Write a sequence for this structure.
């Protein structure tokens, strides 16, 4: 039961939305915008947590993964990006060869990681042949390692250069060993904003079309949105609406990840970042609006461990993975976590201390280990161990 339905302080408009959520009905575009404009944080949390617990109970997922970033040199000049370097300044960046990338992957041979996440800049040498050879090499070396790789921004350039269609290109990637697609490169779909912050990259229709072709092959992918810069609430809901519509059509998305804009070392440094309450509101409304997405993820290196923990009461049921300090995309933009690595024990305790059930998953949400009752050797030595303060997961305080 949603407590807001009996709260006399809640407006009739908000109660109507709460009633829809309680009965499993879809909210409209206008109602989504209204939630951003007038929704009180506790009210939004109660709705999002209701949906979260209806779908997953207290189950909270993480995985053991590492990131591989082929290059930070890029043809594109996105104004929000702190990560990439222009070709004329390529000496400031890195450009790994296939052999160097395989050496990085082999460093994890004795570790129980289940996923390699591959994204990077866009350059001519990282073409169709390069990536199909890379995926094949990874699978030949470690067949069970799940390859989650490249965004539509990268695929659009690769396929255009190779003169192949999206459908043909994605089929070639699947045959080479690609297992799933991450959700990056979405930024904001609406052209009013996209043209300003990511001009020259694939547009919204192209981004969605590449995911659609991947879904037609029976495969899964994720989706993101970069929020908290020059977009309006209507732009955010437009983005969520386009994702919801494609999910109605294909059912191929498994997780949505809101990505917070960070303003260090980029062309948008004059724009203030959102605060914690705004971030939690974004998570909650995403959970409410995307009724056909199974999972909502908080990317903890970007928002901090503490806010990721809080987000578990605002619709989030996944806090990503161990990362192992292998990604520079957000640390270079001033993210909270400048050395983003957590071991399994730290992730499990983070989840436990807000009353949730920690589950290690693979990329496709098959459960590998249930850590609900697990006791780590380190914790046996410190009976009073507490990593972070306990909060009220029901959001009723």
């Amino acid at each position: 039961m949603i407590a807001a339905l009996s709260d006399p302080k809640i407006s009739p408009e908000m109660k109507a939305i709460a009633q829809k959520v309680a009965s499993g009905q879809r909210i409209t575009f206008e109602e989504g915008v209204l939630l951003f404009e007038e929704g009180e944080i506790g009210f939004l949390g109660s709705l999002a947590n209701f949906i979260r617990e209806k779908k997953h109970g207290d189950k909270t997922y993480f995985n053991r993964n590492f990131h591989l970033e082929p290059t930070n040199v890029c043809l594109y000049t996105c104004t929000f990006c702190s990560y990439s370097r222009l070709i004329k300044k390529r000496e400031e960046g890195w450009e790994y060869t296939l052999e160097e990338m395989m050496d990085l992957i082999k460093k994890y041979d004795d570790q129980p990681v289940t996923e390699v996440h591959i994204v990077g800049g866009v350059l001519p040498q990282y073409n169709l042949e390069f990536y199909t050879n890379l995926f094949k090499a990874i699978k030949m070396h470690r067949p069970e390692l799940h390859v989650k790789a490249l965004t539509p921004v990268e695929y659009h350039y690769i396929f255009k250069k190779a003169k192949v269609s999206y459908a043909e290109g994605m089929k070639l990637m699947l045959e080479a060993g690609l297992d799933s697609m991450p959700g990056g490169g979405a930024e904001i779909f609406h052209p009013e904003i996209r043209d300003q912050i990511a001009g020259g990259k694939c547009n919204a229709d192209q981004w969605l079309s590449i995911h659609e072709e991947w879904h037609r092959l029976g495969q899964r992918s994720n989706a993101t949105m970069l929020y908290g810069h020059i977009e309006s609430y209507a732009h955010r809901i437009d983005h969520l609406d386009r994702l919801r519509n494609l999910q109605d059509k294909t059912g191929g998305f498994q997780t949505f990840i809101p990505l917070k804009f960070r303003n260090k070392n980029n062309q948008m440094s004059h724009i203030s970042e959102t605060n914690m309450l705004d971030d939690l509101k974004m998570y909650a409304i995403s959970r409410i609006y995307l009724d056909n997405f199974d999972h909502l993820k908080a990317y903890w290196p970007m928002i901090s461990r503490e806010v990721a923990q809080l987000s578990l009461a605002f619709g989030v049921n996944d806090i990503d993975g161990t990362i192992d300090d292998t990604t520079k995309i957000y640390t270079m933009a001033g993210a909270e976590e400048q050395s983003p690595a957590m071991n399994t024990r730290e992730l499990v305790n983070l989840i436990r201390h807000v009353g949730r059930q920690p589950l290690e998953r693979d990329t496709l949400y098959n459960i590998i280990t249930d850590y609900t009752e697990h006791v780590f050797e380190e914790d046996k030595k410190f009976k009073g161990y507490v990593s972070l303060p306990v909060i009220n997961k029901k959001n009723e305080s």
